[in-house]
Design goal:
The complex is a heterodimer of chains A (about 375) and B (about 325). Chain A has helices spanning about 5-20, 70-80, 105-110, 125, 135-145, 150-165, 170, 180-195, 210-230, 240-245, 265-270, 275-280, 325-330, 350-364, and strands at about 30-40, 45-55, 60-65, 90-95, 100, 115-120, 200-205, 230-235, 250-255, 255-265, 335-340, 340-345. With about 375 residues, chain A is an alpha/beta fold. Chain A has 2 domains: about 55-90 and about 110-115 and about 200-364, 3-Layer(aba) Sandwich (Rossmann fold), CATH 3.40.50; about 120-195, no CATH class. In chain A, the strands form 2 sheets. In chain A, strands 6-7-8-3-9-10-12-11 form an 8-stranded mixed beta sheet, sandwiched between helices. In chain A, a hairpin with a 2-residue loop joins strand 11 and strand 12. Chain B has about 325 residues and is mainly alpha-helical. Chain B has a two-stranded antiparallel ribbon with strand order 1-2. In chain B, strands 3-4 form a two-stranded antiparallel ribbon. Chain B is built from 14 helices and 4 strands. Classes of the chains: A alpha/beta (about 375), B mainly alpha (about 325). Chains A and B meet through helix 3 and helix 8 of A and helix 9 and helix 10 of B.
């Protein structure tokens, strides 16, 4: 989505909010609106995702960033409809190419899964079935959505394995997952996810289990495939380095909510949320003196059962006192601070920019 | 795969030799270590007449005064190549596998075992099919409907199943079905499969169900736990993410993985049972190996006990071998 169209979408959404009326149809290829995913447990209601909205067009990459437990993975599983059959309570809207998924039947969503939208998981060792050859697993993924013979599907599997850079794909197609290295396994996973030309690819921490050189290769591969297939890609990660590498837009999540959302240039170049500042300060950088210490964000991620009142980040925020008691009583809304750049923070926009320029940026 | 098979087979043979050594040691070495003289040992094998002459004859016949290694060699060669026993004036041939001679029954142990084995086989085969199918089916359904009325009900029954001893459930079922409701008016009487298959099955239904109830309860609990664990695996999530129908996810992905450990236990249980389902056979008066060994223990007929122990050991080793091979067929990680 270009900056102009993002602005248009943002204006429309703002207008809707102001009107308070029912939301109109989708404006983007993927349009998630006010998504809430809650899990009732014996200890209380876990608000894993609480009012999340974002949108994504084909050919673009969205990076969703946040600590463990910020709701990143729950969101992606929700988009794929993989919470069906669990205790999850889901509300809001997920529009994929004009089709609403939250209210769709489980079987309708299943038919889209693996075909129109697919997912790459974090740990390819445990995410592939140990008892079936990689070929059989790709064939299965292909044949469930395409009415072809086993031989045709097998040929397609070999093609896909070759495409993701597995050497001697024709013979390796009959190997089992444990016979591959970690990086090669993740390539298998990607081949499987891409086997039906998905228009939406969600990569959930695709490089976490891999060593650094392999990480770069896998990210390159995802980028190349995205260009070839013109897919919309969501990369979920806690690693800002990964996001900087691949994302066009960035959504920063905290405690199940979005706190900052904008283009990669905006979020890296002029971040306005104290949590985003914290993430940037705690990221190791090669262009920095190795003697410098990283600045961690104090405190721990919030409990999703007892999310702190007001701004969920306030117990860990160095600037929350500047807002009087607003930070502890009032949930900050995602408001546009610049065209296509939304932030949920009570600090006045002027003050945020001042803090970034004067205090935070010089430390990085 | 071939190398794996050969390795497993060799290991099984070695294991059988060890089993034979252990068994031999229990019956011949341990008494000697405990201070018994050959005379006292011979007394256990002598039969009804315990005159000094009879004891001396038994000692000679069993070569009890030979050094132990030599005795073990003779024991082993009897199993492998057979041997002869002098009974009074005549010589009784005991073809391989010869586990000894029961002087109380005046028969080679092997022929006694061959008489009893079909009963135990019939009992174990029918019961094991019954418990495997019902236990696994109930376990899978319970796991898929965790917390439902079906799950709770099935698990309560299963708890009763593992807690109630066979001689209790067996006697209750006999009292109700055979004597009160007259479904088996004459009780349970074993009929060989070869003489009348229908009668064979009819008479074995109660023992099958009684024995299967205990194991089915155990297997239902194990299957349920295994399925619950497997359904949380990442590769199940992957299978769903591919858009597979839930049925395929459960049957092809989850059950295949969670039934592998069940298979192991099944092999062991079946192997153990083939050595004699002592309680079930006693409760229903089935003339199987379990009955044979119980009678032999009470009658001090040690050659039979020794023979049954060897056969039971053989079945356990054999079952383990089959399980290992099946395991390799199921799990590719075992092969390499």
């Amino acid at each position: 989505m270009s900056r102009a169209s993002r602005r248009r979408a943002a204006e429309e959404q703002a207008a809707q909010r102001a009107a308070g009326g029912p939301s109109a149809g989708p404006t983007s290829f993927l349009d998630v609106r006010d998504l809430r995913i809650h899990f009732p447990t014996d200890d209380g209601l876990v608000r894993s995702v609480d009012g999340l909205s974002f949108s994504l067009d084909r050919g673009r990459t969205l990076g969703i960033v946040g600590e463990s437990g910020s709701g990143k993975s729950v969101t992606s599983l929700g988009v794929l409809g993989l919470h069906k059959g669990t205790s999850a309570r889901i509300s809001g809207e997920i529009w994929l190419d004009g089709e609403e998924l939250v209210s769709a039947t489980p079987d309708a969503v299943r038919r889209l899964r693996g075909q129109k939208m697919s997912m790459i998981f974090q740990d390819p060792m445990s995410s592939l079935h140990p008892f079936y050859t990689v070929g059989a697993q790709i064939v299965e993924a292909y044949r469930v959505h395409n009415d072809v013979s086993k031989a045709v599907a097998k040929k397609h599997a070999v093609d896909m394995l070759g495409r993701v850079g597995i050497p001697r794909a024709a013979s390796r197609v009959d190997d089992y997952p444990h016979q591959f290295s970690g990086g090669m396994r993740q390539r298998v996973m990607i081949a499987m996810a891409m086997s039906c030309d998905p228009q939406l690819l969600i990569a959930d921490e695709p490089t976490t289990a891999l060593d650094v050189t392999v990480q770069a290769q896998i990210l390159d591969l995802i980028r190349d495939l995205q260009a070839d297939f013109d897919s919309a890609v969501i990369v979920i990660t806690h690693d800002l380095g990964v996001v900087a590498e691949v994302a066009d837009d960035i959504l920063v999540m905290y405690g199940g909510r979005a706190v900052e959302y904008g283009s990669a240039d905006d979020v890296f170049g002029a971040p306005e949320h104290p949590y985003t500042w914290g993430l940037l300060s705690s990221m190791p950088r090669l262009d920095r003196d190795r003697q410098d210490r990283l600045v961690p964000i104090p405190g721990t991620p919030p409990s999703l059962i007892n999310v702190p009142s007001g701004c969920a980040f306030h117990p860990r925020c160095a600037y929350c006192a500047r807002n009087g008691d607003r930070s502890t009583t009032e949930v900050p809304l995602m408001l546009q601070t610049a065209p296509g750049h939304d932030v949920a923070c009570h600090l006045p926009a002027e003050e945020r920019r001042q803090i970034w320029v004067d205090e935070v940026q010089p430390r990085l | 795969m071939a190398a794996f098979l050969v390795r497993r087979l060799l290991a099984a043979i070695v294991l059988l030799v060890v089993v034979s050594m252990a068994t031999f040691a229990i019956f011949f070495l341990v008494p000697r270590v405990a201070g018994q003289t050959p005379d006292q040992i011979a007394l256990r094998y002598v039969g009804r007449s315990t005159s000094p002459e009879a004891i001396q004859a038994t000692k000679d016949r069993l070569h009890l005064e030979d050094p132990l290694p030599q005795q073990y060699g003779r024991f082993l060669s009897g199993i492998v190549a057979g041997s002869d026993f002098k009974v009074g004036p005549e010589t009784v041939p005991c073809p391989a596998p010869c586990f000894g001679y029961s002087f109380r029954n005046n028969q080679p142990v092997t022929s006694l075992l061959v008489d009893r084995l079909p009963v135990t086989l019939s009992l174990a085969a029918g019961a094991s099919i019954l418990w495997l199918v019902s236990g696994v089916a109930i376990g899978v359904l319970s796991a898929l409907r965790r917390g439902s009325v079906f799950d709770r009900g099935a698990m309560s029954v299963a708890l009763a199943g593992v807690s109630l001893p066979i001689y209790f459930t067996g006697l209750i079922s006999l009292a109700l079905f055979a004597y009160t409701w007259k479904l088996w008016p004459n009780g349970v009487n074993y009929v060989p499969l070869t003489s009348n298959p229908l009668d064979w099955a009819y008479n074995l239904v109660l023992p099958w169900v009684t024995l299967a109830f205990l194991y089915a309860a155990l297997y239902a609990r194990l299957t349920r736990a295994g399925m619950l664990e497997t359904m949380n695996e990442d590769y199940i999530r992957t299978a769903r993410a591919k858009g597979l129908p839930e049925r395929t996810v459960v049957v092809k992905h989850a059950m295949r993985a969670s039934l592998t450990p069940i298979l192991t236990i099944f092999g062991l249980d079946l192997g153990l049972l083939l050595g004699g389902a002592v309680l079930t056979e006693s409760t229903f008066s089935l003339p199987g190996m379990g009955q044979l060994v119980v009678d032999a223990v009470f009658g001090n007929d040690l050659p039979i006990v020794l023979g049954v122990v060897m056969v039971a050991g053989f079945f356990v080793v054999l079952a383990n071998l089959v399980v290992d091979v099946l395991y390799a067929a199921i799990d590719p990680r075992v092969r390499s």
